[in-house]
Each structure stands twice: as C-alpha cells, then as structure tokens.
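Problem: given the chain below (152 residues), write out its structure.
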Amino acid sequence: MSPIGALYVHVPFCAHKCGYCDFTSSAVHGGDSRLVSHAETMCAQIAELGARGLLSGVRTAYVGGGTPTWLGPTSLGSIVRTLRNFCPQVQELTCEANPDSLTDDMLRTLAAAGATRISVGVQSLRDAELRELGRIHTAEQARRRVRAAVRC
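Solution.
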C-alpha cells in the first residue's frame, strides 16, 4: 500500500446540531467524556498509521466535523500535534471552528501545535439568517472571532 497524500480526521461532536447539517455528528455537552475519549482514540489511530509509514506522504490534513473546536484546546491541540509528529511532509493543516467555540486560548493552542489554517463556520453575517439556520452565535461574534483568527 502506498502512502496517502491527504488525511481527513472527523470529530463527530458539536454544541448544537444545525438543522441543515448532513454530516455524522451529534450535540453533546462540553464536559461529555466522549470528547476526550474521541481525541485520545484519534491520536492513537494517527500514531498507528504513522508507525506503519502510511502518513509519510501526507501533505494536507483537515480536521473537520461536527465542530473540532468543541473538543477544547487540550484535546484538539493533541490531535494537531500528533498529526504534525506523524505527517512530516504536511504543508497545510486545517481545523474547522465555529465562532462559539473558537476562543483566544484555542487559537493560541492551535497555532503552537502547528495548525496552518482555521476554517471558521460563518454561514451568514446577518443575525436573522443565523437564527433561521439554527446557528448559536451572532453575526458580531463571528466577526470578532474571524478578526481574532487573523491576528493569531
């Protein structure tokens, strides 16, 4: 089997399941033990694939969901560091984020861990549309978090 060039790591959890979302994900509370357990499992699976040499050619890695930032800085930071450790050729490492869980601490942690790109889930900058879509952040919160991500 030849090494792969791109890797997607799925985080199937979020704070709120939006009505339009077709991805495999479920809403869980922030302290749910499945968040940490999932991150630990992902790190172990990445390490196993890496030890077999299957990740040596990965140039692009994407952590999506759900909402990866819902894992919290420690758990998501561990996934990003593990990807960096076992994907030595990675040039772009993206993490999806929602404005409601993209804290300054999260931004600092992801930058330090080696993420190169944040994909912020901003479906609209109009509060009425955000409510219609079932989003739990406001347009202003989205603007603030995008500005914070740019500064980081």
